[in-house]
Design brief:
Blueprint lengths: L3 E11 L5 E12 L5 E2 L3 H16 L4 E7 L6 H10 L11 E10 L2 E10 L9 H6 L3 E7 L3 H18 L6 E6 L11 H11 L2 E4 L8 H26 L8
Parallel strand pairs: 4-6, 4-7, 7-8, 8-9
Antiparallel strand pairs: 1-2, 2-3, 5-6
The structure holds guanosine-5'-triphosphate and magnesium ion (MG).
């Protein structure tokens, strides 16, 4: 991203009945960082100003997280615990719910957008559309249900297929660890799968709030770092020359 200073020379012409028009006779844009002149038409200049105005309005970074995993594993319970500090005992299958809140990541203000999707098989067909908007994924299973761990492979594959990318920020989450006496999946088995996928494995309890903040924070960190890398690459690929966005 280049920073742009704009110099405008104008001529004023008074019109009857007090209206004033300003006609541009010359304008010049210059990058405030590398000081090179930018060539652009008046139309491009207006677009640029509008883009800059929009960006400054939404200057708090927004990180888009999507909850995936089988039905009943605790995606909504984790989301509601993170958002409101509440644990919901009842099971009310989700179709799709979206949440947003301001938070602080490593001392920097940001916003998190969480899309809580449906785990139930009957909604499988609508998942593709949701996945497209995701910048990072929490793939949840229940440590009390072996089958829910096996299903995570399908979610992982579907995300990689839809985004055409298997390096998107992604964390494998083993939930319901407060129910230790009902545990069917060992830490090592789930961690081995995460190793295969080259991602982190974190165990949580939506009931006791164990590691709840940690999974969202860690995923936001991964999203933020990936965006920073991409921005750097984009900056380099423009070979140091100024670009009008
Ligand atoms: N003991 C315990 N129960 C949990 C935990 N997380 C969720 N539950 C319970 O498990 C049930 C299902 O939780 P949900 O969060 O609705 O599951 P979900 O993954 O959102 O399910 P779908 O919306 O159908 O995809 C609810 O009764 C929750 O109270 C947990 O960490 N510990
Ligand atoms: Mg749900």
């Amino acid at each position: 991203m280049h920073s742009v200073e704009i110099f405008i020379d104008s001529e004023r012409a008074s019109k009857p009945r007090g209206t004033v028009t300003i006609s541009l006779t010359r304008f010049r844009t210059r990058c405030a960082i590398c000081n090179s002149a930018l060539n652009c038409s008046l139309g491009e200049l207006i677009n640029l100003l509008q883009t800059m105005a929009k960006k400054s309005k939404h200057s708090i970074p927004l990180h888009k997280v999507i909850m995936v995993g089988s039905g009943g594993v605790g995606k909504s319970a984790l989301t509601l615990q993170y958002m409101y500090g509440d644990f919901v005992e009842e099971y009310d299958p989700t179709k799709a719910d979206s949440y947003r809140k301001k938070t602080v990541l490593d001392g920097q203000e940001c916003q998190i957008d969480i899309l809580d999707t449906a785990g139930q098989e009957e909604y499988a067909a609508i998942r593709d559309n949701y996945y497209r908007s995701g910048e990072g994924f929490l793939c949840v299973f229940s440590v009390c249900e072996q089958e829910s761990l096996e299903h995570t492979q399908e979610f992982r594959d579907q995300i990689a297929r839809v985004l055409d990318d298997d390096t998107v920020p992604f964390i494998l989450v083993g939930n319901k660890v407060d129910l230790e006496h009902l545990r069917k999946v060992t830490f090592n088995d789930a961690a081995a799968l995460a190793d295969e996928w080259n991602c982190k494995y974190i165990e949580t309890s939506a009931k006791t709030r164990q590691n709840v903040d940690e999974v969202y924070t860690e995923l936001m960190r991964q999203i933020r770092n990936r965006k920073a890398k991409q921005e750097k690459l984009e900056g380099k690929s423009s070979s140091g020359k100024c670009t009008i966005l």
